[in-house]
Amino acid sequence: MNNPLEVIVEYEMDSLEAKAYKLCVIWDALVRKEFPNELFTALRTKGDPRKSNLFRYCYKLIRETLGLIPDEQYRLYITAQLHVLRLQKDGDVHALIDPCILVGDKAWKRWKLWKKYYDRQRNQHKTEEELDIKDKMSRIQNDLKRTKQFLASQEIVSQEGITEKINDLSLIRWISLGKVTPYYAILSPWISSAVDGKNLEEVFLFDLGVYRKSINDEVTNWFREEFAYEF
Fold it and tell me: Which domain holds residue 113?
């Protein structure tokens, strides 16, 4: 693929067209990552990209959301739309993935829902420095125990149950609302199997880095005992 800057200069794109073209490039990369080997509306490699269907939808997205979505959040916006599509189709699409999913009222509502959960998770996030080292382990254990109790109350007692709740977005919502701790998402072999090698950050749409830093051998060994039925 050509360097985006070269294409923008070659076709003398204005600022909105340049933004739309960059979204085309992002769409191409994200769809290939999320849906390998699936058919999708791709960025044309020859001629004026503004004549392509993908560019028209990306340009429409820019026009509809001008001033509503910061430039740095468009990658997250496109990722969110693709995640919803993947979860709705249970990861098995086998149909043309079209950029029409990026625009319109339904797309905006999907984005607002995902962004709400994303922001809530980030606001609740405590940095490594904010945690008291002395009681970090007990906090993690308490969070995991509450998660265990909550899942039992929802009758989630099997791998199939976890997979179902990921597919219908319930588990993502529960983590965002604090009913299920992110530590569980990282440590659970049931979740690992359900996402089938996919990046957890992209499945749940928030940064797990701080939580990963808190997980050591002691935490892992405790989890294996407390959640022995998952192993």
Answer: 4-123
